[in-house]
Structure formats: structure tokens, C-alpha cells
Write a structure and sequence with these properties.
The chain is α/β, with parallel strands linked by helices. The chain has one domain: Alpha-Beta Barrel (TIM Barrel), CATH 3.20.20. Helix content is 42%, strand content 13%. The protein contains 16 helices and 16 strands. The chain has helices spanning 3-16, 48-51, 55-64, 89-94, 102-112, 116-129, 159-165, 183-191, 217-232, 245-254, 260-282, 317-322, 327-341, 358-365, 368-384, 423-434, and strands spanning 39-42, 69-71, 134-140, 144-145, 148-149, 156-157, 175-176, 179-180, 209-210, 237-241, 288-292, 310-313, 346-348, 388-389, 391-397, 412-414. The strands form four sheets. Strands 14-13-12-11-10-3-2-1-15-16 form a ten-stranded mixed β-sheet. Helix 3 (55-64) crosses helix 6. The chain starts with a helix and ends with a helix. The relative contact order is 0.14.
């Protein structure tokens, strides 16, 4: 149910409602990040527990692919606990534990490996053998579960508290087809529920998640807690999904790139980036912060996107099918990045969401040979553009309609699976790239 939320948000934010100033260059602080040659996607590193892939076996893959950076090595989407035994009572039912005893729920968390103590253990094992590797984690700026957890304080946020953090279009008098849009209507749309008249059919108590208001200080504190906890577990970089989604929404809703609400949203995003940087400094290390790259034309010339250290983009489904990039489009993207953020590293990876994504196209529509060829084409083409293509070593939800499953059972893409067999291609491309 929650997984459906991601693709709906991306689509509905664009359809629901009928150039920034250069940010500070990060040359003095990007350090190892600018030296990254080989980046691999591995989401989640702790899946090794359920895969029966040990830390030693995972490290072997990282060494063989000469990885300098693990991208999205851990992804906070639903509430994550410190350890299987630490599931708060308030989260027990919400985390889809109906029908399970507490003992069974604890064992299920243990079997997934998706908890913070496990993450810390995995990062420590990797860092012991590969101390210079950059471990990048991920948090969502567009997802606020109905019941949430601050892993730094242990506070559980109730549905009333999270609803107070949810975006209300009426705060800025936003309209659709000339009519005011209620909070319920908007939240219904992004959750996939029927909004009804004035949102009357929407029951927030049945929604799994809300779209948050990034300008809400309580939400920013909660979002930062997710980043801080992963930093405490050993993360070196934090990637924030859809950090500028709210600013985009307002720009498209109002048609006014200079709308005060855009400035509020961008200023809030900058506070989050700054907050992560400051927390890293308090721990004696520089934490790299990244998000999706933006189009300069969507925002006014006097806006500032803050001090991101890197940005990411994703090739389209059509580019995957055609085994080729739209170079004019990508050159425009690079130009926007440079004018907005300065000379920071740019990465690209094959993204996913639900049943209709780039990873679905890549894994389900292409055979192993075609997948390998796409990887080769993208690696060469992105390199020519000055973009570092992230190799899909492990990770990427292939949708609940997938018929080709990793090892015949998993809906997560795995380059080592016999159904795909792209690992050797990745390893060879990485060898060439590492030697340049």
C-alpha cells in the first residue's frame, strides 16, 4: 500500500494543478566525492540478511566492482526501529503487523535486517575492509507515514501530529480550475484515494501516509532525525528524495515563479541541507548531501537552492528502450546544474517506483544481452557528458506485475541473478572506468 504512494506523488503533483541563482560551489568541501570514479547502487545493504549474502560476500562484490561509492545503501521509507525488540506499541499495528504476535513481528524485522543496529553493523564491516568508500543513505522529503518515529529521541508521532505536518494548499490559497483546494482533496489525490466533494470521501485515518509540508518546522526536525540516525550508523552522504517537490508544486499551481511560497519551500529545503551539514560537523566529518537536479526554468532567477554537494538524474524509459540518450536534453540539464549549483558532481541511475518505472522497463522488457548493452551505452554516453553513471549492482523494485524475478523469487533487481546476468558487464565497465 505504501509503495504505491511514491509513483502517485510524482505523477499527481504534476497533474493536480492546472532560473535560480548559482549556489555556493563545493570545490573546497567535496573532497572524496569529486574523486569518485565507480559508484554502485546497492539498496539496501542490509538485505544481505534475507539474501543470505554475508558482509564478506557483499564486500567481495564491492571490491570486484572497484566501488568508490555505495549509492542509496539504506533507504528510510517506513518507520525504522533501532532493533527488532524495539518496536513501540504505537507502531506495532501500523507497520502491518495485523495477525502477527509481537514475537512474530520481531522475528520478521530481524529476518529483513532493515533496522538501524543492523545498518551500523554492515557499514562497520564494509568500512573495516574499505575505509575510503563513501556510503550514501536515502531519506524521503515527500513521504510522511501516518504514524512516524524519531529515531534520535524515540518519540512516536501520532496520526494527529503527522496530519498537522501534512501540506495544506489553502495556506497559500492555491486553486485548481479556479476553485480552492482543500487539504483533504490534495492529500487524497497524492495518496490515490477518491477526494470526493471538498475531500468528503477522504478518511485520513485510513491513509498510510501524507505529503508533508517542508516549511513545517516539526517535519523538518523529524526529517533531520532520519538523516542524523543514519549518520550515527556510519553514513558519509545523504540523498534526499524530492527535496524540491513542494516548490515545484507551487510553481506549477500558481504559474508564478516568484511566488513567496516558492521562496519559503526552497528556504526550508536549504535549512535541511544546512542542518545535515552542521550535524556532520558536530561529529567531526563532512557529510555530503544530494538530491534530484532541477530545471532552471521552473523557478525564478532570484531563488537559491542551497549548498547541495551532488545531484542525480535518471534516464527515461524511452531512452532505455531505445538504448540511447537524448543528448540535447542532457546538455540542458548539465547547464542548469552548473548555473544553479556550481561545479558539483552529477550522477545518473536507473530509478524506480512501482509498476511503471525505468527499472521495470530495464528488467522486464529487455533481455540480459539488451540490458548489458544499455549499461555500456549509458556508461559511455554519460561519461562524455561529464555525468557519472551509477551501476545497478543490487536494488530497484521491479513492480508487483513483474514476471522475471531475481533468482525466481525476488521483485528487487539483482545483477547477479541468472534472470539478468549483468554483473560481469558491470564489473568490466567498472574496471575500465577505474583505470581512467
Amino acid at each position: 500500500m505504501i509503495k504505491k504512494f511514491l509513483i502517485l506523488i510524482d505523477f499527481l503533483i504534476i497533474s493536480f494543478f492546472a532560473a535560480g541563482l548559482p549556489g555556493p560551489a563545493q570545490a573546497e568541501t567535496d573532497g572524496k566525492l569529486s574523486q569518485v570514479k565507480v559508484a554502485v547502487l546497492y539498496e539496501n545493504i542490509t538485505d544481505g540478511v534475507s539474501l543470505e549474502r554475508s558482509p564478506a560476500a557483499t564486500i567481495k562484490l564491492l571490491r570486484e566492482t572497484r566501488a568508490d561509492m555505495i549509492f542509496r545503501g539504506f533507504w528510510k521509507w517506513e518507520p525504522i526501529v533501532e532493533s527488532p525488540e524495539d518496536i513501540p506499541d504505537e507502531l506495532f499495528e501500523f507497520t502491518q503487523s495485523k495477525g502477527l504476535t509481537r514475537r512474530q513481528a520481531v522475528e520478521r524485522v530481524r529476518q529483513t535486517g532493515h533496522y538501524y543496529r543492523s545498518l551500523a553493523s554492515w557499514i562497520a564491516a564494509i568500512k573495516k575492509e574499505m575505509p575510503d568508500i563513501i556510503f550514501c543513505v536515502a531519506i524521503p522529503a515527500q513521504q510522511l507515514c501516518r504514524v512516524e518515529l524519531n529515531p534520535m529521541t524515540g518519540k512516536v508521532y501520532t496520526a494527529e501530529e503527522t496530519w498537522a505536518m501534512a501540506l495544506d494548499p489553502q495556506r497559500w490559497d492555491l486553486t485548481r480550475k479556479g476553485k480552492p483546494v482543500t487539504k483533504e482533496q490534495f492529500q487524497a489525490r497524492v495518496s490515490g484515494m477518491k477526494p470526493g466533494k471538498n475531500g468528503a470521501e477522504y478518511d485520513r485515518r485510513k491513509a498510510s501516509a501524507y505529503f508533508p509540508d517542508i516549511t513545517n518546522a516539526d517535519f523538518r526536525e523529524l526529517l533531520l532525525s532520519w538523516a542524523k540516525k543514519q549518520i550515527d550508523c556510519g553514513a558519509d552522504a545523504v540523498w534526499i528524495d524530492m527535496l524540491y517537490a513542494q516548490a515545484k508544486l507551487i510553481a506549477r499551481a500558481t504559474g508564478d515563479s516568484g511566488h513567496p511560497a516558492i521562496k519559503e519551500a526552497l528556504a526550508a529545503a536549504a535549512k535541511i541541507v544546512d542542518g545535515i551539514h552542521k550535524y556532520g560537523e558536530s561529529k567531526g566529518k563532512y557529510i555530503y548531501v544530494g538530491s534530484w537536479g532541477q530545471s532552471k526554468g521552473e523557478f525564478g532567477a532570484d531563488n537559491n537552492f542551497g549548498g547541495l554537494d551532488f545531484v542525480t538524474f535518471a534516464p527515461s524509459k524511452e531512452e532505455i528502450r531505445n538504448n540511447g540518450l537524448d543528448k540535447e536534453k542532457w546538455q540542458g540539464r548539465i547547464s542548469d546544474v552548473r548555473s544553479i549549483h556550481g561545479n558539483i558532481p552529477v550522477f545518473s541511475f536507473i530509478d524506480w517506483s512501482n509498476n511503471d518505472s525505468q527499472t521495470v522497463t530495464f528488467s522486464q522488457e529487455l533481455n540480459s544481452r539488451e540490458q548489458a548493452q544499455v549499461l555500456k551505452t549509458f556508461d559511455a554516453s554519460f561519461s562524455q557528458l561529464g555525468i557519472n553513471f551509477i551501476y545497478p549492482l543490487y536494488g530497484g523494485y521491479m513492480g508487483n506485475l513483474a514476471t522475471k524475478l531475481s533468482f525466481g523469487k525476488s521483485r528487487v533487481y539483482d545483477s547477479l541473478a541468472p534472470e539478468f546476468q549483468t554483473y560481469e558487464t558491470i564489473k568490466e565497465l567498472a574496471r575500465i572506468k577505474a583505470q581512467k
